[in-house]
Amino acid sequence: SPSSPVALPPFFMRGSIIQLADGELKRVEDLKTEDFIQSAEISSELKIDSSTVERIDCGQSPNAVLIQFSVGELKAQVCVEVLVEYPFFVFGQGWSSCCPDRTTQLFELSCAKLCVGDVCVSLTLRSLR
Amino acid sequence: NVEPRSVPVFPWHSLVPFLAPTQSD
Questions:
Q1: Cβ contact (<8 Å) for B18 and A36?
Q2: What is the least distance, in Å, from the CA of A25 to any CA of chain B?
Q3: Counting CB atoms within 10 angstroms of each CB, which of A3, A32, A69, A125 has the fewest?
Q4: What residue of A is the nearest CA neighbor of B22?
Q5: How many Cβ pairs closer than 8 A exist between chain A and B?
Q6: Is B2 near chain A, with CB under 8 Å?
Q7: pLDDT confidence band for B25 (50 / 70 / 90)
Q8: How far apart are CA A1 and CA B17, in angstroms?
Q9: Taking CB atoms and an 8 Å cutoff, what residues of chain A touch B17?
Q10: How far is the C-alpha of A116 from the C-alpha of A13, rounded, in Å?
Q11: What's the rounded Cα separation, in Å, for the pair A62 and A54?
């Protein structure tokens, strides 16, 4: 299959240093669900939300997938197109992608297989009031 | 092996997709 240059963000590379909201530094591969929850609690602008994977379909390009999420209590339907190796953080499980082998190959980031029903960490903007 | 003098640090929220931003009055 054609392999276009990967333009994924660099911070998914194993060993990348991530700063939590309280200033603590952690490697991307060491992040836990609690790190996201606690960072969002501190944040004045962002709140954590859960996004459940409802569908995974082929995207328009060979290496892309369309993932449909049901977001938050209102179950807002959101569809995103990402490369198959794009990792999402699943509550209680950790990094997961549609093609974990490719994620591991490209980023050296251990991943589980992202499946329908998985609940991913996502963010929404807090209401200003 | 050359140790980099400065290592980029990324904010935690970079790793999380923003989905369905909410705006309410």
A1: no
A2: 8
A3: A3
A4: A125
A5: 78
A6: no
A7: very low
A8: 27
A9: 51, 80, 88, 120, 122-123
A10: 25
A11: 21
- CB count in 10 Å sphere of residue A60: 7
Neighbours of A103 (CB within 10 A): 25
Long-range contacts formed by A39-44: CB under 8 A, 24+ apart: A39/B12, A39/B13, A40/A123, A43/A126, A43/B13, A44/A126
DSSP conformation letters of A7-72: ---GGGSTT-EEE-TTS-EEEGGG--HHHHHHHHHH-SSEEEEEEEEEEEEE-SSTTEEEEEEEET
pLDDT along chain A (129 residues), means of 10: 59 96 96 96 91 94 92 90 94 96 94 97 80
ipTM, two decimals? 0.84
As beta bridge partners, residue A121 has: A50
Nearest residue to A67 (alpha-carbon basis) of A58, A76, A75, A8: A58
